[in-house]
Amino acid sequence: MKAIFLLSSFLLFFTGAVSAQAPAAKSAQPKNNTLQQQFNSLKYLSSTHKEFNQDYKVVKLNRLDGFWRNVADTLRAREIKLKNARKDIEKELVQAKQHLQEQEKQLQTLKQENVQKELAVQESAHNVANISFLGLDMNKITFVILSWGIIAFLLIGLGILFYLYKNSKYVADEKVKSYNDIEQELKNHKQAARDKELKIKRELQTEINRVEELKQEIALLKKQTQL
């Protein structure tokens, strides 16, 4: 009697557990009948025993063993299904990680490409805004300002050189004119000196001739006196 009471208590306890797992067991039971249906059939086929105003069921051991095997098979099937689901989830997780890594690689590649494009754009902008002059990298605006500054400096220098040249030419022309004047004056002076010298020579020759005439006259007078 005690064994029947314990078995009945176990069946009542198991009824609650199976009732809680019945929705999930329907998809896991490989047979046509669900655990709930099998349990209801087990109660229906079992004889009823009443004691102390309580109903008890007397279940055949082979039916109870068969039901237990079905429960164990269902649990094993659910466990296998859970393991397979876990494997599938782990596989999907690995694939997701691989896909994420591939996306990260693609993202890094895109970042590198963006960096290279940005560098290329910066280089193009730099080439547009700058120019190489005498091996120096210089901004074009600075180069234009420097070029105009050099041109202005050269023009100022050229103006100064032109002024100095003109002034030097004027001084040289004045010196040449002065030299020509002095040379002409010297020529005139030489001509005057030559003319004066010729005049003096003529006068001297005249005086010499006169002296000779006087000597001849004196000599003639001396001869006349001696006679």
Sum this structure up briefly.
By secondary structure, this protein is mostly helical. Helices cover 85% and strands 8% of the residues.
Which regions are unreliable across 5 or more consecutive residues at pLDDT < 50?
1-31
SSE string, helices as H and strands as E: HHEEHEEH
Helix content estimate: over 70%
The biggest sheet, with number of strands, parallel, antiparallel or mixed sense and barrel status, is: 2 strands, antiparallel
| SSE class | mainly alpha
Secondary structure tally, helices = 4
| Averaged pLDDT | 79
First-to-last CA distance: 234 Å
Structural domain tally = 2
Assess the beta-strand content as a share of residues.
5-15%
Signal peptide: 1-20
Transmembrane segments: 141-165
Keywords: Coiled coil, Membrane, Signal, Transmembrane, Transmembrane helix
Protein name: tRNA (Guanine-N1)-methyltransferase
Description:
The chain has 227 residues and is mainly alpha-helical. It is built from four helices and four strands, in the order ααββαββα. The protein has helices at residues 2-28, 35-45, 61-129, 140-226, and strands spanning 47-51, 54-58, 130-133, 136-139. The longest helix is centred in the C-terminal third of the chain and has 87 residues, at 140-226. It starts with a helix and ends with a helix. Mean pLDDT is 79; it is low at 1-31. It comes from Adhaeribacter aerolatus. Residues 72-120, 172-224 form a coiled coil.
